[in-house]
Amino acid sequence: MGAKTTGQSELKFKRIVLKLSGEVLRGRGTEPIDDTTLEAMCTQVKEIHDLGVQVCIVIGGGNIFRGLHGAKRGIDRTTGDYMGMLATVINGLALMDRLEKMGVSTRVQSAIPMNQIAEPFILRRAIRHLEKKRVVIFVAGTGNPYFSTDTTAALRASEMHADIIMKATKVDGIYDKDPKKHADAVKYDSLTFIDALKQRLNVMDSTAFSLCMDNNVPILVFDLNDEHAIRKAVRGEKVGTLVSN
Ligand code: UDP
After folding, report:
1. Is the pLDDT of residue 196 over 70?
2. Separation of 68 CA from ligand 1 center, angstroms?
3. How far, in Å, CA of 228 to CA of 130, rounded?
C-alpha cells in the first residue's frame, strides 16, 4: 500500500458502494448536470479514494429521464426505462471525466453492452479494478426495465461484498416524518431494517430495500451537501442515518 493508505486499518468501511442519484447531480442549478455539484461530489470521492477506500459508484439518471415519468407522457414503460438507463450512462461519463481530471483512475462498467463507451459489467474485473485502486462507476442500472438504480446499488453491493451502501440525498438522514413539512420531525442516528419497515420509512424502493435486508448490506443515508460526510462516515464518525440488521 502507498503512503496515502497508511491509515487504512482505521477505516470502518473498506469497500463501499456510493449511490448517487441523478437529482443530486442537478444540485440547485437548472441544468441536468451542475458543474459545481459535480466537482463537489468528485472531491468527496477523491478524498476517500486517497484514504485507501475501495469505491464503487452507482449513478442514477433521474435528472435526465425516468421511465415512470415517461409512462405518464405516453411512452411505453419498458422504452422509458431504457431511456432512463441511458441517462445514467451520461451521468456516469460526467463523473468519469471529472474524476480522471482530478487524477483519480476510473473504469466505467455498463450493464448494457456499449463497447465504445464503457466496459461490460464483469464482476471479477470490477473487483480487480478496485484492487488496482480504480474507482468503478456502474452505469445502465441493472440492465433491466422495471428496476431502479437503488436496486442496482443493492445488487452490486451484494455481488461485490461491499461493507455498506452510502446513499447520498438532499437531507441529512432518515426522519420519523417529513422534515420539510413537520418542524418537530426527529432524525434517527440508526435503525434496524425491521423498524424501518414497520414505520414505513421510505429508505429505498421495496425491491432495493429487501435485497439489502436479505443480504445484510447496511445502508447509510446522508446529506451530500455536508462537505466531508463520506470521509467522516468511512472513519466511523456519526453521519446521517445507518440502517442495518
Ligand atoms: N432504470 C431501469 N432499470 C434499472 C435502473 C434504472 O429501468 O435497473 C431506469 C428507470 O426508468 C429509472 C431510470 O432508469 O427511472 C433512472 O434511474 P433512477 O430513477 O433510479 O435514478 P435516480 O432516481 O437515482 O436519479
Report:
1. yes
2. 9
3. 22
